[in-house]
Amino acid sequence: MLAINIVFTPICTAVVSLRIWVTLTSRCFGLEDWLMCIGALLNLVHNGVVIWGTFTGVGTPDSKLTTAIMIEGAKSVTFWQVFYVSGPLFIKASICVQLLRIANNKLCKMFLWCLIALTVLTTLAAMIVGLIRCRPLAASWDPTLGTCMDQSSLVILTYVVSGMNIIIDWSVAIVPVIILWNVQMHKTLKIMAKLVMGIGALASVATIVRLPYSAAYSKPSDRLCMYSKSFCKNLT
Questions:
Q1: Is the pTM of this model over 0.90?
Q2: Cα–Cα dist 39/93, whole Å
Q3: Which domain holds residue 111?
Q4: Into how many domains does the chain fold?
Q5: Are the CB atoms for 151 and 220 separated by under 8 Å?
Q6: Which long-range contacts does 42-46 make (Cβ < 8 Å, 24+ apart)?
Q7: Less Cβ crowding at N or C end of the chain, within 10 Å?
């Protein structure tokens, strides 16, 4: 996880920084750029939490951990969940807002607004459940401090949220292709633009690959070991 973080974090930071520089020098810094900046900052925090997790037992079997380290590892997972669901909200919203600028079809614009609303609702639902599933919140990483909801319910919610994210990711990847279909531009440039925008579909692939590891929430042991798979798939 640490190696993946070290490789991808600078790349993402460089890409976003280049985008900011281009929009600022072109004097066209807009709402979508603000949203992308917020999403990028949350992603940096997310990656920082992942690094924290690598030093607090995430990816390690329970047999090799002390109780204190397991509690600290569970705490890192709790905070990871918050930034895992919040960061993509702003990134997807940024893409949709940018597409709204170039879309000239009323149906496409309505669909994009629906995607934004669906993303917000899905994110809020996931965050609210994640924050209230244990009372007090500290019981999320130390069960002796309180009580938590049935973990099987959390697994079901994870599958539902993941399913919604897959739909949203594919929609965000396909809509640009539809919008650019009849745009007057060089054929090669149009193909390249569609390919670049279609890369967004890879996010849904990562979500699909991550689905089998959602069962980690209901495992009685070695949860931190299972969580590492989700951490890695989200980083890539």
A1: no
A2: 9
A3: 2-235
A4: 1
A5: no
A6: 42/83, 42/86, 42/87, 42/90, 43/12, 43/83, 43/87, 43/91, 44/9, 44/13, 45/83, 45/87, 46/80, 46/83, 46/84, 46/87, 46/234
A7: C
